[in-house]
Amino acid sequence: MDGNLDAIVIGAGFAGLTAAIKLHEAGFSRFVVLEKGDRIGGTWRDNTYPGACCDVPSRLYSLSFALNPDWSRAFSPHHEIRDYMEKVARDFGVIDRFRFGAEVETAVWDEAASLWRVTLKGGETLAAPVLVSGLGQLNKPGYAGIPGRETFKGESWHSARWRHDVNLAGKAVACIGAGASAIQYIPEIAKTAAKVVVFQRTPNYIVPRNDRAFSDFEKSLFRSVPAVDRGMRWLIWKLMDLRFQAFKLGTKAADKFRQQALDYLHAVVQDPELRAKLTPDYEIGCKRVLVSDDFYQALVRPNVELVTEAVQAVTPNGVKTRDGVEHVCDVVIYGTGFVTTDFVSPVEVVGRGGKTLNEAWKDGAEAYLGMTVAGFPNLFMLYGPNTNLGHNSIIFMIEAQVGYMIEAMRAMKARGAKALAVRDDAFARFNAQLQKDLTETSWAGSCSSWYKTESGKITNNWSGDTLTYSRMTRRPALEDYELT
User: Fold this and answer.
1) FRET label pair with 414: which of 182, 261, 331, 431, CA 20 to 30 Å apart?
2) Each residue of 258-294: b (16+ CB within 10 Å) or e?
3) 16 neighbors 134 (Cβ within 8 angstroms)
4) What angle do CA 89, 91, 94 make, to 5 degrees?
5) End-to-end CA distance of the chain
6) Is residue 56 within 8 Å of 180, Cβ to Cβ?
7) Cα dist from 278 to 15, 173, 199, 306, 332, whole Å
8) Do 375 and 421 contact (CB within 8 A), yes or no?
9) Would the pTM of this model clear 0.85, i.e. be above it?
10) Helices 226-242 + 216-224 axis angle, to 10
């Protein structure tokens, strides 16, 4: 057991990478990043499906202190993001702090020693005063409770576990789900598959991505004049942050945004019956607003069929819907999203008094500023509860969270404190106000979504714009914490 560490970080996505760099720069250089996979990347390591790319502009979906002038497109493909992350880890000298194939099973707070004791699969244990969770919200595949999956005779997989060894040419493919991932890979597989049947539970609002390749001149300009790159990044961030107004119920911005999405649908889909199936009946933003330049275009292809009858079960030969129709197919692809409200479900986290995080969150996950939880000292969550966005880049939020964590660690060191824990009253007050503010947003609308639990509690999204969040997290309000 190594008790000489300053911190243990779990997860090698953007959160873990940012934490590693900033811990190193702040002088907390004795740390390790534990990753169960075989390389850096997080969601950009796991999601390799055809057409996988970011739906936030490349210039903004990167670290502010590590600009990349060489993005090939306005919206980066997945492999470029993964390669960028690995390059950043090397450039900032932290690549050797990552331990791959290290799956964390438990993390237990030792009150007497003021240490987190972390146990890996296989039995190895590590200890450090600070535990950083960079597990994110989109890493555990979900299958929407569809029965019969194990009975299917053909090939099948989840979009986040893509089978590149299966050639879809000439095959009949069933795509269950039409969300953020599905609208990227469906246009690609429709180019080669004989038939694609798309099973849509609820239509989404979709706006054009307006993707394009960057010219050699533009890349040369970004490379030779970094101020241009930085200025472009700032402008994109500002414009996207202003768009938060479109996610507030009853605003003119929301009406305008909704009309933009409907105009795009009407411009591409001429068939009134198909268009009706694709028209949402809920507030824009209640579900994730999607961006695409080719999904609607794929649905009007002659080899693509949209089915809106609910999926009843997967059968040995295909997919059966509630109207009794069996859609025979060779391959089933699950674009059914992720388990998004558990947050640290792969890891059993045990705080003071033997209470687990899952027990603390039995009524829905919550945290103070999305980072700290009452009863769990020295635990910092990155991209935790209520820090997801519908309008801007999560990278901005992660940088704010890591900065907050570093300042909290510095405050502990300056005061000779061994433990920092958010006060119960501050924790309760913050979350009560947060949920009140969220009632004014579209995420509290009439639809069901992965933003909230079955009871309706919104556990994923932040209640305001990112500028507000950055101001609130600039430095810890130590009066809201107990330092012991």
Assistant:
1) 431
2) beebbebbeebbeeeebbeebebebbbbbbbbbbbbb
3) yes
4) 40
5) 24
6) no
7) 35, 20, 12, 9, 22
8) yes
9) yes
10) 100
